[in-house]
Amino acid sequence: MRAISSPESPARRPIWVDAAPFRAHVRHAMAVADVPWPAVAVAAGVSVPAVRALLSGRAGRPQTRIEPRLAARLLRVDARELTAMRVTRVPSALTAERLRQLLADGVDPLRMARWCQIGPDELTALVDGDAGSCARLTEALVLAAERLREADPQQPGVAA
After folding, report:
1. Which DSSP string do the residues of 96-135 spell out, in sequence order?
2. What is the pTM assigned to this prediction?
3. Closest Cα partner for 54 from 82, 80, 26, 92?
4. Of these four, 25, 29, 30, 118, which has the most CB atoms within 10 Å of its CB?
């Protein structure tokens, strides 16, 4: 990992690191675990838009550097942890509350179900409070959708 120092103060601690190795790590973990990028952001405890920018770039340009703190958090997430999100069950009350708010804000229920990688019946059960638990992956994807809506309230639905 090559650090890039700030031109104003070369003696200071590096402010940025090359993005490429971290992008490769995230893509590898996603591929092995078969989970979408928003789940990685939630598992790492980092900004959802930051992971989207790392993977997709900004304004059509690939991101070439990232903050060391973001890099370190992304490295802590591994494919085993992400894979476990599919089978680990968590209480669904907070997820259901978030889903109800997203739907009330105008997010299309079918689009939300696709985003969460669940069927419409499971989404309905969550929203209606009929499901006592949900997959940790579902919880993470609903949280990511909520964070994306907070970052851009004008967004018509969940970003893919």
Report:
1. HHHHHHHHHTT--HHHHHHHHT--HHHHHHHHHT--SEEE
2. 0.85
3. 26
4. 29
Per-residue pLDDT of the chain in tens (160 residues, 90 and over written 9): 555 444 555 556 668 999 999 999 999 999 999 999 999 999 999 999 999 999 999 888 999 999 999 999 999 999 999 999 999 999 999 999 999 999 999 999 999 999 999 999 999 999 999 999 999 999 999 999 999 988 877 654 555 4
Q: Where are the domains of the chain?
A: 12-85, 88-151
Beta strand ranges found along 55-152 (DSSP E):
65-66, 89-91, 133-135
* 18: enclosing H helix or E strand: strand 16-18
Q: Measured between alpha carbons, how far is 56 from 60 in angstroms, rounded to an integer?
A: 8
Beta strand pairing call for 133-135 and 89-91:
antiparallel
